[in-house]
């Protein structure tokens, strides 16, 4: 490509609504252009990256026996009503009516359509397994679109759907996709991590997220540096503390703690470690009986003062599905005290105490005394209060926790979710009556898996991981161009012009994706553009250098340029690219 | 590709709603699957054709200095309101509201968005010319979607937009696109014709349509076999007849023609040639004055009995913009007679007579006598009635008419419109204030052109041109596969299996897009599938043949197979493909 025949549009400053680095840099590098809230035109420079991302995905999907098709954007409401998602998806689903008043969804994903395709096409187990995918525009009407391509409304996604005759087959298809994703993200040249995710009803290891590692990531990833264990924060298990619970050493003492409702301030007031305190969280679960009467059940959740509640885990405790925080009025009514002074000892009414595993292992702890202005110190299970009714994993893990696989201690890093593989089971095939005839000629529901990659989101995530104060640093496999040639004074020097053209042809001949900057800019402006755009390899062709028999090579992460002889440059570049 | 890893789904019969051959064959060959009215899933076999069509378009667009980007599907209403198309497009424009009640269009084309991109990006004439294109999903809410991909609602289109500093530049960009289109359709391997089209306000040769030639085409194409002249029926000019008008030879005679209101029946009754009759068409033009009073003007259009009215041409006659047919009541009121007996001679009120060029050249003609049940014969201009107030080209040309370039006689064939190039001028740039600074630093509106190709429509058009009673006959460049290998009894014969694998590898190595049918079907069913799907080259590998030292090659249009030695087959196939 010649820059003069391409469209390059860089900005000194990012628009004020670009809050994060990747959004700012994509706007400044002219990769995207905002059309509306969460809606972007992919400019020529950005589209090249998208196409490279798509090509890698397509190649690995095909190698993994994925079969590409293309499902429509505009999908009849009737299909979405069959699975109930027409209602369940709420405002996020973009709905549209045609001239005859018929309703349609603009696809956010395509489970319904692919299941509809398959239920009419698949008759026998002999046709299975199958894995269909497409790379298609999606729309989700996010309440608050932001961060450029990271949380847009219109975006591109690769979504794949596997169909199998039984659970084992589905899990095998899932494994094939997991491995394909691993190859895909490896080829992107990004640091990534696959983590086990919670997948609700199915449980187990039925779902994994693929995250690009970045300090700015929205999600906390939990992993064990000395084993394969990895999960997202929702799914990472906090094991019970090792060993026996320490014996009680202190006497139970009611201590005045006026205006001290948080564990942090209680610990400071008493001069103790925060890890010696217990915080009490009051939850309420409402159930509606057959007579439509609402019954409320109240739960007291106990968490160590320095730990965080994990709402997903709480929801899995028997009786706690659909829980909510109790209101202040409810707390006053049930416990006779105000929030901040609740505790398991001497409650006014019988209450179900649900203790986190760590709390159940504590002795001589500090907790609210159910009396405004007072806490207990030296509290102990069994002695001062009955053992908790329920002990469960209720908290987020923290760095240093034991890994659930017993192979070391957990570490935590931040990630950006860019892929998700999911064992769907028969949820869609049952609601849509997608069956096949098994070996005995009996109809059985198809076992499904679904597998997504946020194509356009990859761009944002790659940048969040790879940038400096000059701009983007693309991995070579998804860079808009692999190499940029920067001739100095091409219009003045015949030598420079000739050498540039020779090199351009040689690199193209070697299959390198090269752009020559023939715009005639001053060196400073030219270099700044390409550093902002993030092309990984730059070659400067100058008359002085040529007369000394060298070109100047500089990798995007290099502090300084390296002189390379013109004859050796193609091999040199190939060597750099192979690294 | 191996058929066992692909998805092949053929049908014996087409669904009853498939009215035309291409729709029937695409459904039967498993290329598309209906999701809703005018909405199709592109199945794996169909998607391969679409991708090949797109690749050819992209390659030629890039060679013609087109720069690819990707504009969103969901486009803010405000942009469409700027050009007035939000209203003008009516029900065909699919509209959607987001969760905040903001309105959007699902793009049918992208003039507004590209003009918005360019008005913020282009500051100076130095940045011009530019030509942006994208290949993107479109939606048009057709009143009556039908014919499969030929008149669907969701479809794929390549749309390009050129921007120039002046008319000459725009016309040069237009020429570049015209030539690129010619190369694109040539590479598709289709018989096609570019015809001049009417483009309303701009006139001249500012618009061409590209048609795939097919008997079943919706459009009539006019061309001169002995010159370059070609136009669509709307735009093809009918020249005035050559020579002087013949002198009057008959006397004007009022002749009884009871219940004979059509020229055909008048000619039969009188025993004369239809070409001797003149039909009269009453038109009314309503104009609303400043006082909101509606004034009606009435026109009498004269056409030779065997000619057809061309409404586009009529609309261009001074005073006839916005014309409509007069109602029966208006005819009775103005002319004092009933339709079928109108004529230019002896009208009750003064009326503007607009004669087609051919009619103005007639003598001794037959026309209505403005008296129910009577026609005049032997009518002559000048003698019996004043020369017509207006003489204009009002009719469709017919085969044999003189070519407007004076180089021969016109012929007519049918075509399917698949591309359109259009000189837009400044219509969009003026309404959207898309200006640039010219050499004198003065703002000037951008000169635009737009250029579309109906990507998915190409599939339908290619089939309408290329099919037989067995199925589709794809041109090799856009066939889903170039070559199919049909092994006979691969599971029984080690020799067949070995030779098939060898040949498969050899063809792949030679860059041939080959599929091996390893499904284990009987020969009849296997051959029928590939003839239906329309793969252009087939090689049968059978044990008997191999023992005789040959494979059986058959081109999709060949009546019989040809024996080819295994060693020679790759070169043979390459030879066939080069034809």
Strand segment count of chain A:
31
**Distance, first to last CA of chain A:** 24 Å
CATH superfamily of the largest domain in chain A: Bira Bifunctional Protein, Domain 2
DSSP summary: helix tally of chain A:
16
Greatest interface by residues involved:
A-B, 49 and 49 residues
Round the Cα radius of gyration of chain A to an integer and report it.
Answer: 30 Å
CATH class of the largest domain in chain A: Alpha Beta
What would the principal axes of the Cα set say about the shape of chain A? Answer: globular
Structural class of chain A: alpha+beta
Tell me the number of structural domains of chain A.
Answer: 3
| CATH fold topology of the largest domain in chain A | BirA Bifunctional Protein, domain 2
The quaternary structure here is homodimer
In percent terms, what proportion of residues of chain A is strand?
25-35%
Q: Report low-confidence residues of chain A grouped into runs of 5 or more.
A: none
User: Main sheet of chain A?
Assistant: 9 strands, mixed
Average pLDDT figure of chain A: 94
């Amino acid at each position: 490509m010649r820059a003069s025949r391409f469209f390059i549009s860089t900005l000194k400053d990012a628009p004020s609504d670009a809050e994060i680095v990747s959004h700012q840099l994509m706007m400044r590098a002219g990769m995207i252009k905002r059309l509306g809230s969460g809606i972007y035109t992919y400019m020529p420079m950005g589209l090249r990256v998208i196409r490279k991302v798509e090509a890698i995905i397509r190649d690995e999907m095909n190698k993994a026996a994925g079969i590409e098709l293309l499902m429509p954007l505009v999908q009849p409401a009737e299909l979405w009503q069959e699975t109930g998602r027409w209602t369940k998806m709420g405002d996020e689903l973009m709905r549209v009516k045609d001239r005859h008043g018929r309703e349609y969804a603009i696809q956010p994903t395509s489970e319904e359509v692919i299941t509809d395709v398959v239920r009419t096409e698949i008759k026998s187990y002999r046709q299975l397994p199958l894995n269909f995918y497409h790379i298609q525009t999606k729309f989700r009407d996010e309440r608050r679109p932001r961060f450029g391509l990271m949380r847009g409304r219109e975006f591109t996604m690769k979504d794949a759907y596997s169909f199998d005759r039984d659970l084992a087959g589905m899990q095998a298809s899932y494994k094939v996709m997991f491995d394909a994703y691993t190859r895909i993200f490896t080829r992107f040249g990004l640091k990534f991590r696959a983590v086990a995710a919670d997948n609700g009803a199915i449980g187990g290891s039925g779902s994994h997220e693929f995250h690009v590692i970045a300090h700015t990531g929205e999600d906390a990833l939990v992993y064990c540096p000395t084993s394969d264990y990895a999960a997202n924060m929702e799914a990472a298990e906090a094991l019970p503390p090792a060993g026996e619970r320490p014996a009680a050493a202190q006497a139970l003492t009611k201590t005045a703690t006026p205006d001290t409702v948080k564990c942090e301030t209680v610990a400071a007031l008493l001069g103790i470690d925060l890890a010696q305190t217990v915080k009490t969280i009051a939850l309420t679960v409402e159930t509606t009986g057959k007579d439509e009467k609402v019954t409320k059940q109240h739960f007291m959740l106990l968490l160590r003062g320095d730990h965080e509640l994990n709402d997903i885990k709480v929801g899995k405790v028997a009786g706690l599905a659909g829980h909510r925080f109790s209101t202040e009025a409810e707390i006053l009514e049930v416990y006779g005290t105000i929030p901040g002074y609740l505790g398991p000892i001497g409650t006014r009414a019988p209450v179900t105490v649900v203790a986190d595993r760590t709390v159940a292992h504590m002795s001589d702890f500090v907790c609210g005394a159910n009396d405004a202005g007072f806490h207990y110190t030296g509290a102990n299970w069994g002695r001062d209060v009955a053992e908790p009714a329920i002990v469960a994993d209720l908290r987020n893990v923290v760095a240093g926790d034991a890994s659930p696989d017993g192979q070391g201690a957990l570490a935590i890093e931040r990630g950006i979710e860019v892929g998700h593989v999911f064992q769907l089971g028969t949820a869609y095939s049952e609601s849509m009556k997608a069956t096949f005839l098994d070996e005995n000629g009996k109809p059985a529901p198809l076992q499904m898996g679904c597998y997504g990659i946020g194509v356009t989101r990859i761009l944002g995530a790659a940048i969040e991981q790879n940038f400096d104060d000059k701009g983007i640093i693309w991995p070579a496999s998804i860079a808009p161009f692999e190499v940029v040639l920067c001739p100095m004074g091409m219009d003045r020097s015949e030598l420079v012009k000739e050498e540039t053209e020779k090199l351009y042809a040689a690199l193209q001949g070697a299959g390198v994706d090269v752009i020559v900057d023939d715009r005639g800019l001053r060196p400073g402006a030219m270099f700044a553009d390409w550093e902002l755009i993030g092309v990984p390899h730059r070659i400067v062709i100058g008359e002085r250098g040529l007369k000394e028999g060298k070109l100047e090579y500089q990798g995007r992460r290099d502090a300084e340029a390296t002189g390379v002889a013109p004859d050796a440059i193609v091999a040199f570049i190939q060597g750099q690219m192979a690294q």
